[in-house]
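User: Reviewer 2 asked us to show a designed sequence for the structure in our supplementary figure. I'm pasting the structure tokens here. Could you produce the per-position amino acids so we can include them in the response letter?
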């Protein structure tokens, strides 16, 4: 038997979250998964697009986190949209509960990765962006691209 791989292996990234939300802070949480979920996750068959986390009964749960059923699974295959429990310390859960109760703050998963063989989730405390914020981001990105393009052309000449 070989050793478990060291380091971080990214699996799924919620790229839309940085466009839709202002990220206030990040933290790492462990995931409670069943066997077929882990196998599907290792194959990269998951979607974080509409996922969000809630604090319920002193525990943190992720809802709308879709993990596709494992191809070689049988009748014991998992439900793709079942709520998944996150593993955090009690004081972190209490702090997140207080933050979640504030108006406008939400818990959004940013990415899923494997760290030393264990599934981890990068969770963010975020505030939803307004439409004008999104437009500003697009405009600044376009301006940055134009500047980079002009510098590149200037350096070629």
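Assistant: Here is a per-position design you can include in the supplement:
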């Amino acid at each position: 038997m070989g050793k478990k791989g060291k380091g971080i292996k990214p699996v799924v990234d919620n790229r839309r979250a940085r466009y839709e939300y202002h990220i206030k802070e990040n933290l790492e949480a462990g995931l409670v998964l069943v066997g077929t979920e882990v196998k599907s996750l290792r194959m990269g068959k998951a979607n974080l697009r509409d996922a969000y986390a809630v604090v319920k009964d002193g525990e943190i749960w992720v809802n709308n986190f879709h993990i596709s059923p494992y191809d070689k699974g049988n009748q014991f295959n998992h439900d793709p949209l079942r709520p998944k429990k996150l593993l955090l310390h009690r004081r972190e859960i209490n702090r997140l509960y207080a933050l979640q109760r504030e108006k406008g703050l939400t818990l959004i998963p940013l990415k899923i990765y494997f760290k030393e063989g264990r599934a981890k989730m990068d969770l963010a405390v975020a505030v939803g962006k307004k439409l004008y914020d999104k437009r500003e981001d697009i405009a600044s990105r376009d301006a940055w691209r134009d500047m980079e393009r002009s510098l590149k052309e200037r350096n070629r000449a």
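For the response letter, you might also mention the following. The two ends are 57 Å apart (CA to CA). The longest helix spans residues 131-156.
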